[in-house]
Specification:
This protein is α+β, with helices and mostly antiparallel strands and 333 residues long. It is 38% helix and 20% strand.
């Protein structure tokens, strides 16, 4: 039977969160499981949370870990990779039970929860599992030495908490033979995933080791990726990529404008050559026409001359005939 008032309703997550069943104090939806816990009255009061250490202002992280944490958080907010609400934080304490101290993963990811609006209230400064009514789906620990407890103590706590995926990034292989080690909760303990299995379907993300430059530092970084293995870019990378793309587009446009200008110049030159050729053709035509007229005139002159010669010959013949008729014989030259 579905409860009438749950965190799902409180958060306004109606669409896409179909209720499946209730098992004990667990409300199971299609996407996530919330624990409906009847909290004592005192745990609902702000004063109750004054006893918890939510920050101690102790800088304990090394430079690599700090950068790695940001590299895991930034792309989640810079890319449209999921339609679900999520909370992703680094170096934020998780209280999984009131009687135990907080555990502070390098990074965690929790779906279907909202960051509280009043961040500075004590009860909202950490991730209290009993307030969120669920554990994060994933935590990441970055190994920076051999004494951090990532492979034993912390792993046991996350398993007890019910975190589905535990990711250990060991860039310099202090604890493992591989830089990236993925574990999935199976009952009460974690089982390692095969090395070639980088995609986490419940998270809708994969994670891989990417060797390259981040903020001018070359290192083997743990980075989120798609199912196809494409890296999720940071906001700065996307801005740089967009800027480079716009610059290339501007260069292509400029080159295209130059090519169009050159083509226009070539077309103008071709038009000029065509005009000159037409003028030469017209000149040749006129010259040929003039030559034809001269030839016609010469032919006509010859024809006239020939006619005059023929007429003179005929007159001479008639005159000779007349002379002979008169008995006169002209002397021959």
């Amino acid at each position: 039977m579905q409860a009438t008032s749950t965190l799902i309703e409180e958060l306004g997550y109606y669409e896409g969160y179909k209720f499946v069943r209730q098992v004990g104090n667990k409300l199971i939806y299609e996407r996530t499981t919330f624990h409906e816990v009847e909290l004592p009255e005192e745990m609902l009061e702000d004063e109750y949370y004054e006893q918890f250490i939510t920050e101690d202002d102790t800088p304990v992280d090394n430079i690599f870990s700090e950068k790695e944490q940001r590299l895991l958080i930034d792309p989640l907010h810079a890319n449209a990779w999921t339609k679900r609400n999520f909370l992703a934080s680094s170096n934020v304490g998780i209280y999984y039970e009131p009687s135990s101290p907080a555990i502070v993963p390098d990074m965690f990811l929790s779906f279907d929860v909202k960051a509280p609006e009043e961040w500075f209230k004590k009860k909202n400064r950490c991730y209290f599992v009993w307030r969120m009514k669920k554990a994060p789906e994933l935590v990441v620990e970055v190994v920076s030495n051999k004494i951090g407890g990532e492979s034993k103590e912390k792993m046991a706590i996350y398993a007890k908490m019910g975190v589905m995926y535990y990711v250990l990034i060991d860039p310099y292989m202090y604890l493992y033979k591989q830089r990236l080690n993925l574990f999935k909760l199976d009952g009460q303990k974690y089982e390692p995933l095969p090395q070639d299995e980088f995609y986490l379907p419940e998270i809708e993300l994969g994670i891989k080791i990417w060797e390259g430059l981040f903020e001018k530092h070359e290192a083997p970084w743990g980075r989120w990726c798609t199912k196809e293995g494409d890296i999720l870019k940071t906001g700065a990378e996307r801005t740089t990529e967009l800027s480079e793309s716009l610059e290339k587009e501007a260069q292509r446009a400029e080159q295209e404008a130059q090519r169009a200008e050159q083509e226009a110049q070539r077309a103008e030159q071709e038009a000029q050559r065509a005009e000159q050729e037409a003028q030469r053709a017209e000149q040749e035509r006129l010259e040929k026409e003039a030559e034809r007229k001269r030839a016609d005139e010469e032919r006509l002159a010859k024809e006239r001359e020939q006619k005059r010669a023929e007429q003179q010959t005929k007159r001479a013949e008639r005159l000779l005939a007349q002379l002979k008729a008169l008995g006169l014989e002209p002397e021959e030259d």
